[in-house]
Amino acid sequence: xxxxxxxxxxxxxxxxxxxxxxxxxxxxxxxxxxxxxxxxxxxxxxxxxxxxxxxxxxxxxxxxxxxxxxxxxxxxxxxxxxxxxxxxxxxxxxxxxxxxxxxxxxxxxxxxxxxxxxxxxxxxxxxxxxxxxxxxxxxxxxxxxxxxxxxxxxxxxxxxxxxxxxxxxxxxxxxxxxxxxxxxxxxxxxxxxxxxxxxxxxxxxxxxxxxxxxxxxxxxxxxxxxxxxxxxxxxxxxxxxxxxxxxxxxxxxxxxxxxxxxxxxxxxxxxxxxxxxxxxxxxxxxxxxxxxxxxxxxxxxxxxxxxxxxxxxxxxxxxxxxxxxxxxxxxxxxxxxxxxxxxxxxxxxxxxxxxxxxxxxxxxxxxxxxxxxxxxxxxxxxxxxxxxxxxxxxxxxxxxxxxxxxxxxxxxxxxxxxxxxxxxxxxxxxxxxxxxxxxxxxxxxx
Length: 446
Ligand code: SAH
Ligand code: SF4
Ligand code: F3S
Known about the structure:
With 446 residues, this protein is α/β, with parallel strands linked by helices. The protein has 4 domains: 2-130, Rossmann fold, CATH 3.40.50; 136-263, Transcription Regulator spoIIAA (2-Layer Sandwich), CATH 3.30.750; 264-384, Transcription Regulator spoIIAA; 389-444, CATH 2.40.50. 36% of the residues lie in helices and 22% in strands. The chain contains 14 helices and 19 strands. Strands 2-1-3-4-5-6 form a 6-stranded parallel beta sheet, with helices on both faces. It has a 5-stranded mixed beta barrel with strand order 15-16-17-19-18. Strands 7-10-11 form a 3-stranded parallel beta sheet, sandwiched between helices. Strand 13 (305-312), helix 13 (319-332) and strand 14 (336-341) form a beta-alpha-beta unit. Helix 13 packs parallel to helix 14. The longest helix is centred in the last third of the chain and has 24 residues, at 360-383. The model has no long low-confidence stretch (mean pLDDT 94). The protein binds S-adenosyl-L-homocysteine (SAH), iron/sulfur cluster and FE3-S4 cluster. Iron/sulfur cluster binds at residues 163, 165, 167, 170, 172-173, 207-208, 244.
């Protein structure tokens, strides 16, 4: 039996693509393995959103190519994902033993690509490259693939690829190409198929889900898609990511009034609380607009929990700008956030602002302060839940404790409680006993 090992870095898009790679290579008789050492094909699905994740590729490749060099059997090593798209031939030049480099749009062709790159001779290398972007029709065809996520309580479903925005810090439009929406009929087919296999929670994914379908005449809008997914029997919960504050319209806010399956958690990346910085990032909304969205969402769904992304130390960010971000964190009281120091990305327009670069130690100090405040807010919010009973969709065994299961509330809180595995896939009432920074502890209410 031939074996394939895939290491995944980056976002849900990559997780989804890795699922496709496993499913497709499975058709050629490849078995998935968790151990790189006994794989015949080693693939690393990469992320280049910031410098740090990009660096992970290079240490990983060092290990993978060492296996290829020392084993007596042929081992094929491939780089996929966003760094593959961004660097292309440069990667093949830098690593002469590397067999295959393919971008996100080439995932549907992974069978042919691996076949072309494989050799019968140990240590031989042919070097194959595929970084073509697919057009709309070809992509629609490619999306019919089975993502292979059956047997899970929750599943991701891609609704669009690429991004048409030009946020000045961001590499994604370069690595994923222009925004292409997948046909909603096809999305609904996939959702039905997943629900039939027992999937209860559907997470619709795209870089800018709110602009879904707008470029295609007659296509459902994102809000209409939410209503349609909600009508699929078996689906109990709907989540989606990522939303852009500029494109979040009244129809989606209305959906929070109409659709109980739509969960009470929204990840709405704000990036900064300062209008000046938001302008330089080309986000096309301001603080006031963002706060008004928050009000409308909470009005439509009183228990709405919000999370966000922040970038600290964007070029030109002053102490005052940063204080605006700190005050926004308090004003919205985000219950969690991802925060990053600005990282320079090749070819992005923010590089032109670098004359105003923020000193690394200043950016670091801002990051630490923001994260400290976020922890305080998260803990306070989680502690205040003690004694409340919440509906929990049980996902599986707890990673740490025997006899304990974990699941999520509608508000996306991870909660652990004593229980047995027959609860997996069921929604049960759980009373919160204690709140921690990132999770809750509870007790099943029989
Ligand atoms: N499409 C999503 C974000 C995708 S990237 C959106 O528009 O919100 C995920 C997060 O990574 C972004 O929200 C941003 O906070 C962060 N990020 C992107 N590029 C970055 C960079 N160059 N430096 C630091 N953080 C970055
Ligand atoms: Fe990047 Fe902006 Fe597109 Fe998000 S919306 S992927 S941050 S360019
Ligand atoms: Fe990373 Fe590419 Fe996703 S850069 S965050 S893997 S779209």
